[in-house]
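Thread: quick sanity check before group meeting

JM: Hey all, I'm pulling together slides for Thursday and realized we never actually wrote out the predicted structure for the chain we discussed last week. Dropping the sequence here so it's in one place. If anyone has concerns about the input, flag it before I start.
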Amino acid sequence: MTVKRWLSVHTHSLKGKTVAITGSTGGLGNALTWHLASLGADLILLDRNQTKSEAWANTLLSHFPDCRITRFSVDMEDLDSVKALTDTLLSSPPDYLILNAGAYHIPRHMTSCGYDNVFTINFVAPYYMARRLKDAIGQKHGRIIAVGSIAHNYSKTDPDDIDFSRRQKASLVYGNAKRYLMYALSEAFKNSDTLAITHPGITFTNITAHYPKLIFAIIKHPMKVIFQSTKKASLSILDGVFRPTAHRTWTGPRLFDIWGIPKTRPLKTANEEEIAHITKAAEEIFQKIETM
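JM (edit): ok, ran it. Output follows.
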């Protein structure tokens, strides 16, 4: 099914609705905001790099002049920044919030909240925002869309190393953070239809551009051929705007979690003991951030 056909069958007009999205200047963020603007949504772009955010907003407006775009600055590894942004959003809640920003292979350090920066960006910050905005968005019959990853399959959580600060392998560190995000939110929203857990499969974005320059120059063109474009991969995330995911399910590409149109399936890579650990740790982290 083509992207155009999928959009015509599985979406409807979002005119009069506002969608806030973290990480709008990346490949998936660009594709998502383009789709959303084409459906009539107004946008709130939540990004660290305001120069890139302004440039992308101008590009969108040149194609969708009726789209109302607001921009806010946020650094997802700075919890003061995240808390201030969340307070701003609570004052006038969007109808939908897409937690899209992420980081994979970046220089590692501890953040002010006491956790590894990859863990903070991919779990602590988006989990905090979702928990704080859950009721406000729910009252608008809206939805929070969390962007997970198939990388969560690669890491089993460790109670003695919650943020994987003692690990070095990027796929494990990133996967651990996404595992926390997906399971913690699924449990926190288990009696609500305000959540969609989604993932794009594998696509060509800044996250996949982490290889050494020579290797990346060799593999980037085959990657573009083998894996879905961001325009198509983003459909699984966009699907979350229109359909919630039930408790412990997630939506992603139909074939091997990598190719094809969106399909929802069970989230079943963790046992009850691990889920209980994730839920407890997530609540403790949330309460810690609340009192910072």
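AS: nice. The longest helix spans residues 117-139. The radius of gyration is 18 Å.
JM: adding both to the slides.
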